[in-house]
Write a structure and sequence with these properties.
Shape: globular
Mean pLDDT: 95
Radius of gyration: 13 Å
Distance between the termini: 38 Å
Structural class: mainly beta
Strand content: over 45%
Largest sheet: 7 strands, mixed
Number of helices: 0
Order of helices and strands: EEEEEEEEEEE
Number of strands: 11
């Protein structure tokens, strides 16, 4: 069972990136999924999540209207589209899967599997 995140990189302010996270050993269909991030010197925080069966969707206030979380169950892949990036979006981004709860949340201890993280750096 593994989550492999990719798609991070260096981008200028105002630019875009798409992060991907592919599952191996299980499918994403029935589970809540989420993206978290951790900036240097800060605690890890939830960015966006989707509940099982797309039951609910949450975004942290700072990214609303700029980031979009989605999934492709056939590809066992979840995505985070990051638009209009700002320097304070710089962080390591982690994907996570919760096999227990129907609705998603930003409570990290609900999540059973985590990807290793992909670095996003927003700088001119």
């Amino acid at each position: 069972v593994q989550l492999q995140a990719s798609g991070g990189g260096l981008v200028q302010p105002g630019g875009s990136l798409r992060l991907s996270c592919t599952a191996s050993g299980f499918t994403l269909d029935d589970y809540a999924i989420a993206w978290f991030r951790q900036a240097p010197g800060k605690e890890r925080e939830g960015v966006g999540c989707i509940g099982s069966g797309n039951s609910n969707t949450l975004y942290t206030d700072d990214v609303k209207g700029r980031f979009t979380i989605s999934r492709d169950n056939a590809k066992k892949t979840m995505y985070l589209q990051l638009n209009r990036l700002k320097p304070n979006d710089t962080a390591v981004y982690y994907c996570a899967v919760d096999q227990s709860y129907y609705f998603c949340s930003f409570y990290q201890y609900d999540y059973d599997y985590w990807g290793r993280g992909t670095q996003v750096t927003v700088s001119s």
